[in-house]
Amino acid sequence: MGNKKLKILFASFWIVLCALFGLFSPTIPFVKELFEIKKVNVKGTDKFTKEDIKRVFEKENWFFIDKDQIKKELMEFNFVKNVEINRLFVGNVDLIVMERKPFAYLQYRNRKYLIDDEGVKLDPKYYKVNKNQKLPVLIYNDKSIDKNKLQKINLIKESFKDILQFEKFFINKSQIACITNQGQTVIFSTEDLEKSIRRAKTFIKKVGLQDFKVLNFSFESMVVTRR
Predict the structure, then answer these.
(1) Given a cut of 50, is residue 30 above it in pLDDT?
(2) Is pLDDT above 50 for 20?
(3) CA 195 to CA 119: how far, in whole Å?
C-alpha cells in the first residue's frame, strides 16, 4: 500500500514538474534561443512588411507557439481574411494567408468605399485597384448594410456571367435592380432570389433581352417589361 502511494506521489510530482517546465522554459535563455522562430515563410500575400512579421512572431517560441494569439494579431490587418499557421522543422513556420479581394465599390450615405464580398471596407493603403478589373458599383439604399444581400449580388453575377455584364446594382429592401453595360435594367426579388433568377433565365431563353429596356422578375406570377 505504501509503494502504491509513493508511486502516485512521484507521478503527481513529475506531472507538476513537467507543467512548470512547459510554463517557464520559454523564458530560459538557452531554451528560448534553441526554439526561437528563425524564419516565417509567408504565402498568399505580399502585403506584410518584414517589420510586421517580426513584431508578431519575435515574442513567440517555435515549440510553444500560440497559434490563436498570432491569428488574432494578424487578423487586425485589414487585408487578412483568414490565416493558417504550420510548424515545419525547428525554427521554421509556414504562414498561409487568405487575402480579402476587391469585390465592388459601395455607395452608401453619400460615401464611396471599396469592399470585399463580405462587405468589409478595404483600406486604400493595401489596395491599388486595377482599372481593368471593372468592379461593379453597389448603390445601397437600406438603412444598414446586410452582408447576405452582398452574397446575393454575387449569385446574380455568377448566374448571368455568360449572358449579361452588370455595371451597377441598386439594393433596396425587397429588390435588387441591376444595370447592364447596355443600359438595361433587370430587377430581382431579394426575398426569393433563386426563383427570380430561374424566371429570368427562362424568359431570356424564350424571348431574349434585346427589345427591352426594363425587365422586372421580382413578381412571382408575372414578368413586367418596358421597351
Answers:
(1) no
(2) no
(3) 24
DSSP calls for 154-220:
HHHHHHTTTT--EEEEEE-SSEEEEEETTS-EEEEESSSHHHHHHHHHHHHHHT-STT-SEEE---S
In a 3-state reduction of DSSP, which class is residue 91?
Answer: coil
CA distances from 154 to 36, 138, 148, 161 (A): 44, 11, 10, 10
> What is the C-alpha to C-alpha distance for residues 216 and 199, in angstroms, rounded to an integer?
10
pLDDT over 50 at 17, yes or no: no
Measured CA to CA in angstroms, residue 52 lies from 48, 74, 97, 122, 187 at distances of 6, 9, 14, 18, 46
Q: Which amino acid is at 63?
A: F
H or E element at residue 118: none
Structure confidence at residue 72 (pLDDT): 93
Which CATH homologous superfamily contains domain 27-99? membrane protein fhac (3.10.20.310)
Can you give the pTM of this predicted structure?
0.69
**Proportion of the chain in helix, strand, coil states, percent, rounded to 5:** 35, 25, 40
The CATH architecture that domain 104-226 belongs to is 3-Layer(aba) Sandwich (3.40)
Grid cell digits, residue 186: 433587370
From-to residues of CATH 3.10.20.310 in the chain: 27-99
